[in-house]
Amino acid sequence: MSSPPIGGAAADRIADALGTPNVIGEKGHVTTFVARRFVDRGLLVGLSANPDGTLHHPSQVDRVCRREDLAGLVSAGTPLGPE
C-alpha cells in the first residue's frame, strides 16, 4: 500500500465530494457511519482490525467519491430516524 489507510478522513472526503464539507466544531454532514455502510455494501474495504473502527485505502475512497451517484449512495445507507 503506497499510502497509509485513512479513518475519519474518509467521511470528510465524501462530504467534500458532495459539496458539503465537514467543519471542525460543527455536526458533520457525513460521518464514519456512512463509510461503515459503504463497507457493508461492498463499496469500500474495511482495513481496521477493530470492529468499531474504520480504516480505508485513500485511493479507494477517492474512487467512490468520483461516482456520479454518490449522493444517492450516501442517502440510501443513512437512516432517517429512530424507526
The parts where pLDDT drops under 50 for at least 5 residues are none
Element order: H for helix, E for strand: HHHH
Helicity range: 25-40%
Q: Based on DSSP secondary structure assignment, what is the total number of beta strands?
A: 0
Largest sheet: none
| Number of H- or I-type helical stretches | 4
User: What number of domains?
Assistant: 1
Question: Which word captures the global form?
Answer: globular
Average pLDDT rating: 89
SSE-based structural type: mainly alpha
Q: Which band does the percent of strand residues land in? A: under 5%
Write the layout of secondary structure elements.
Layout: H1 9-17, H2 32-40, H3 58-65, H4 70-76
Structural account:
With 83 residues, the chain is an all-alpha fold. The protein has one domain (9-76). The chain is built from four helices and no strands. The longest helix has 9 residues, at 9-17. It is globular and about 30 Å long. The N and C termini lie far apart (40 Å). The model has no long low-confidence stretch (mean pLDDT 89).
